[in-house]
Amino acid sequence: MSNLSSIKDDKKSGLLHTMRLKFITRGVRFASSTLKIMEFSDPPASASYCCAESNDGIPPTFAMYEALKDSCQNNATFFKPDDTENGQRLYQGFMTLSDHIETVWPLVDHVRKVAPQYDFDTKSPGNGYRSFVSVVDSCVLYSLKLSRQVSTGREALLFRKSHFVKEIESCGQLLASLGTCLHHLQTLLGWAPPGELFPTEHHTPEELFSQADTINQYCFYGRCLGFQFIPSMRGILKGISICMAGFSEAYYCHGNVISSVWTGGQYLINPELRARRIVNISQSASIEFCKAFWFLAESEIMKRVPSLMSSTVAVNKIITIPPEPLTVTTLEDKEITVLPPTVHIGLQGLNIRLISVNKRVGMAGESSSSLPPSDGVLFHCHGGGFVAQSSKSHETYLRDWAAKLNVPIMSIDYSLAPQAPFPRALEEVYYAYCWLLNNFKTVGTTGKRIVFAGDSAGANLVAACTVKILSTGLRKPDGMFLAYAPLNVNFVPSPARLLCLMDPILPFGFMMRCLKAYASPNMSGNSKDSKDDKENNQSVLPNTTSTPSDTNGFLKVSQSQEGISEGPSSFEEVSPSDLAELQAHKSGSERRKSSDTTISAASLQSEHTVTGTTPPEDKSQQYVTDFLERYVLDSDTDSEGRKLNRAANNDGSQREIESENSSTLVAEKPLTVPTEEEGPDNRMKIKTRISEAATGFMGAMQTRLAYITGSSAIVRPTQEDLAVRTNLDALIARSPSEEFIFSVPRDPYLSPYWADDELLKMFPPVRILTVHLDPCLDDCVMFAKKLKTLGNVVGIEVLEGLPHGFLNFSLMVKEANEGSKLCVERMKQLFDLDAAPAAADNQL
C-alpha cells in the first residue's frame, strides 16, 4: 500500500510539475512575444520614397500590403472557429481589414504613380498627393504591426481578446476612411492639369465632398491618433488631444482648471470618447474656444519654460512703438509718410519683442556695452492662426535662433482676429518695418542685412508685407524664410488641405474658423458698410507697378462701431488735413509733444507693464490665466518669468527700476529665498507671499468642493450654449463641407500667392521649410514653383513625420530640434554669415 501510495503521489507531483512547466512555457512565450512586439520599429512611411518603383515597375510597398493581407487571412482563419463574441468580432474585423486592402490598393497605386509630377523638383519631393500616399502606407504599417502582434500572442494565456477587438476594428475604420479620402483625390486629379495642385477652374469644397461618402473623422482621433507621425511626437499629440477635450469641459461647463482635472481623466482611458469630443469640438466650438485653448501657451507656468530650457540671452525686451506718423525714404529718394494703423480697433501702441544674445552699442536701454552693432537683423512674425499666441509663446526657439545667428531678433506682437481682422495685422507689420528702417541703432544693427522670417500665419504676414513693400517702393528685405506658410488664404480644394481632417494640432474646424475670423469677419454683417469701406480704400502710391483691385482692397472700419476712431489707413495717401485729423484723435497718453521723435517716444517695458494705449487683455486669455493669477501668481513677472513684488514702493520709482532691470537677462540669477545679508524684511515678504498663495489655493479648492457638494443658483444657458454642449457629447457624422460656407477674394495682401508676377519677380531670395503632413504644404510647393518659374532664387525642403507648428516642440522632440537647426542654417545662408553654396537651378 505504501508503494502504491508513493506511486500515486509521484504521478500527482509529476502532473503538477508538467502543468507548472506548461504555464511557465506559455508565460515565457507571451513575454518573449511582447518583447518582440516592443522591439518592432514602427516609423511612419516616408513620403519621399513612397512613390519609388523597383526595376519591375512594382513599388516596394506592394509587399507590405500583401504581408498585411496574408496576416489578416491567417488571423481570420484562426478565430473563425471561436464561437465567443470577441472571437467572432476578431474574425469579422480581420476579414473587413483584408477587404479594405483590396479596395484601397488600386486607388493608392494610381495616386502613387502620378504624385511625382507635382513636386517642386526631383531634389525636393513633396506635395499633398505624396503625403496621402505616405499616410495610407503608415496606416498599413500600423495595421501590420498590430496583426502580427495578434498572431504572435493569440495562444498565450494572458491574451486579451477584448482589447484587440477594439484595436482591429479601429484599424478597419481608419483604412476605410482613408479609402474615402483617396476617392476625393481622384476627383482633385481631374480638376487640375499635371503639376497644378490647385484647381484651374472654380470648384467648391461642397462639390468635392459630394463626390463620395462622408469621411469618418472619429477614427483619426481615437486609438490610432498620431499613427502618421514619428513615434517621438505621438505621445505629445495624444497629450494635446486629451488636454483639448478636458479643457472643453471647463470652458463650456463654466468650470475652471480644477474641474477640468476632475472630468478630463475620462479622455485618457477612453479613446473613443476622446475622439468623439475632439471631432465635435472641431465642428461646433467657437473661435473664442480656439483662442482660449491656444492661449494656454501664454499661461504663467508655460512662460517660465524658455528661461529654464532655452538658450540664455542678454536682451529680451518689449518695445512699444507709439502710434505716430513715420517718414520713410523710398528707393527713389522720395519721402513718404506712413500713418499708424487705425482700422478696426483704432490707434494703439504696437509692441515688439527684441531678443539678442549680446548687448550692443546703441541698443535700446543698453548703455554699458562696447560691442558694435550687428550687420544683420531678423524681422520675425509669430504663428497662431491669426487669432492666438504671441512672441512670448514662440520664445522657445527664438532664443535659440538668436544665439546661433548672433543677430538681434525683432518679433512683432501684432493684433489678433476676430477683434482685429484683416488688414490690421498686416498694417501693423508694415508699420513696424517702416519703424525699423528709421531705428536700426535702437535695435542694435547697422541694417546691412534684413531677413524676414515667419512661421504659419506669421509667414503669411511677412510675405504679404513684402508685397506691400515692393508696391510702395521701399527698401526690400535681403532674404525671406518661411516655415509651413499658408500663402493662399482660402479653402481652395487641394490634397494637402484634406490632411487637416486628421490633424491633431490643426483640426479641420479650427483651421476654417481661423481663416474666417481673419479673412471674412463681416461676411454676414452690414453690406453697406463693407461697400463704403471698399470704396474709401486707396493705395499709398497709386502709380506703382501693382495695386489691389477695388473689390479686393482693405476694409476700413465703419463709424457705427463703438469706440473705434475713423481715420486714414496707413496704406492711404497722406495729406495735411489727414495729419491734423490724426493729431486730433490723440488724447491723454496717446498725444505726444511735437518735439518728441519716434525713437525717444518708444517706451521700453517689461512684458507685464502696461503703458500707453495697449489694448485690454483678451477675454479668452483672461479666462485661461484667471485661476493662476488670482490664487497663486498674484505678482508681476519679468521677461524671464521671475516675480516682481507689487507692494514695492508706491511712488513708482522702484517699479521703474524693476521694469528696466528685468529686461536685461544675462548674468542675472533668478530670484531665490534671501540670505542673511538680504535682511529679515525680505524673507518675511517672501514668506508672506507663499502663505498668501497657499491660502488662495486652498480657498479655491474649498470653493470648488462647496460647489460640488452644495447648492448653487441655477443660471439658464442660452440656446447657443445648449446647442454647443449637445453637439460636444453627441455621436454625429456631419460633412466637413458645412464649414466652407464663406469665400475670400484673391487679394495679394491676404494671399501672396496671387500677387502680380511683376511684384513676385522682385522678391528677395526665399527659403521655405515645411512638412509632409502639413495642411499648408501645397501652398508652399505652388508658391515656390511660381517663384521658380519667374526666375527667382528659391528653395524648398519638406521634412518627414513632423506636424504643423513643429518649431514649438523643438525643446521636447529631437527631430523638431533638428528641424529648428535646419531653419538656422537656411537663415545663415540668407544672411550670408557663412559661405553659402553657389545658387544653381534657382535654388539656394
What does this structure look like?
This protein is α/β, with parallel strands linked by helices. It contains 28 helices and 13 strands. A nine-stranded mixed sheet has the order 9-1-4-6-5-7-8-12-13, with helices on both faces. It has a two-stranded antiparallel sheet with strand order 2-3. A hairpin with a 5-residue loop joins β10 and β11 (643-644). The radius of gyration is 30 Å and the shape is globular. 45% of the residues are buried.
Supply database-style keywords.
single chain, 844 residues, alpha/beta, 9-stranded mixed sheet, two-stranded antiparallel ribbon, 28 helices, 47% helix, globular
Topology:
Layout: H1 2-39, H2 62-79, H3 85-114, H4 128-153, H5 161-191, H6 205-209, H7 231-252, H8 257-264, H9 266-269, H10 271-284, H11 287-294, H12 300-303, H13 305-309, E1 315-321, E2 326-329, E3 335-338, E4 350-356, E5 374-381, H14 395-405, E6 409-413, H15 424-438, H16 440-443, E7 445-455, H17 457-472, E8 479-483, H18 508-519, H19 527-536, H20 576-585, H21 598-601, E9 603-605, H22 619-632, E10 636-637, E11 643-644, H23 653-662, H24 680-709, H25 719-729, H26 757-760, E12 766-771, H27 777-789, E13 794-799, H28 814-831
Helix pairs in contact: 1-4, 2-3, 2-4, 3-4, 3-5, 4-5, 7-8, 7-10, 10-25, 11-22, 14-28, 15-17, 22-24
Region (Disordered): 523-622, 634-664
Protein name: Hormone-sensitive lipase
Pfam families: Abhydrolase_3, HSL_N
